Amino acid sequence: MTEERNFRSYYYDKCGFRAVDEKKSIEILLKEQPMDVEKLSQFCLRFPVPTKYRHYVWKILLGVLPSHQPSHAYVSQQHRAMYQDGLRCLTVLRRVNADTPTEEVFLKLYLLEEGNLPFEEKNLHKDPAYVAFMLMAGAVCNVADADIDRYWITSRFYRYFLKFSDHLQLMPEKTVLCLRKEDVDKRLLLHLQENNILSSLPLMDWFRCCFAGVLPDISFERVWDKVLGGSPTILVFVAVAIFLTFRRPLLSMNTTDEMVAYLRKIPEDCGDKLVSDAVELWQKHGFHLMQPKSDSPVLDKTGP
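RESULT FIELD:
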């Protein structure tokens, strides 16, 4: 553990960051009254968020909880009531029952809350945006304990990420540009282009769900930390890291179907390395912060 800490301190110093104790630093930030949301965002960008505090920090950044800690109990009570009222409404309308998957329940709750619940459900599992929401919900369900927290984190993260929809459309192109820079001999990029891999892979689906359901649970959380810090561009570097990590097996494959099938099943034991490589690339290329639109909940922390 000491060696890991020493290496991390050295790495931060090398990158120009003052070595810090992440746990102590985040505890200091969380004790401020009111909490400084901008400082929390910067912490997410620059340092690993301790697992113990991650979901609490997420809820502050997403506006699920206000920056004034004394109000947390009241706001949580209101969120519980809203969740239960919405669930009762969907049950009365016969839109959910005991057999409805949790991810679908959350999607319908969100659509009901937004006033967009469709009369027909035939497109719920076909619309890419709805599928992305359910993938996010499924991933959050695997890492958060209570359904109420799971719903509010999922719905507010989804709403927050929608603010970057204009940037989302540019991510496949940015992935190719970054891969061109990082693939020194250009063999991998040429191989992928010759086999139409970049157009055959669900790259937009990966970006749209922020790699939820694609990366292992503990790994996707680290990616979301950076997104919530204000840099969805981390998603581009995750995609590039995937291609670079699996460079050797990809170069040995000769068919599009074989490569696409391989990349659709990322091994769980590769998740941490992938994200670490992606963060290193992201830092190397200068963080690339993005500003969400002014009505983003991350910019307005006064309510849900």
